[in-house]
Amino acid sequence: MTAVVAHSNEIATQRASAEYLTFRLGAEEYGIDILRVQEIRSFEQPTRIANAPSHILGVVNLRGVIVPVVDLRIKLGCERVEYNNLTVVIVLNVKGRVVGVVVDSVSDVLELARDAIRAAPEMTSAAVDTAFITGIASVGERMLILMDIEALVSSPDMGLMDA
Question: Could you report the per-residue pLDDT of 110-119, keeping only the tens digit for each?
Fold first, then answer.
């Protein structure tokens, strides 16, 4: 009987929290659902595709799979920074497609309790797109912006997924 109680407590704990991969874009720290992450790779210059939007840097060959690479700094309107040895590509599996996103650096994996996540503030400015922000979490002295990476990558303006 004890094993059943322990197992049901584990299930309750799993539902009460989630793990997020945290990364930096400029001065801001973001988190995405770890379950969407396939791997993390060092940045390599992708092969440019003619007439691609500026946020799509090109494609890379990942073990025989051609993967589009998106620079999240450009897509989200962050200030441009030169690529360096901390720049990485987070390879995601979104709706059955493999997509790489370039970020300034990866921080760590955090487990956050659902009640530690606050709703994103509503912004009325058209310049601020909060559609892909699922919440804000305080982690010590840090503010972590939680992002719905699946919705962002599959959004029509990204041009990566079929409608």
Answer: 999 888 888 8
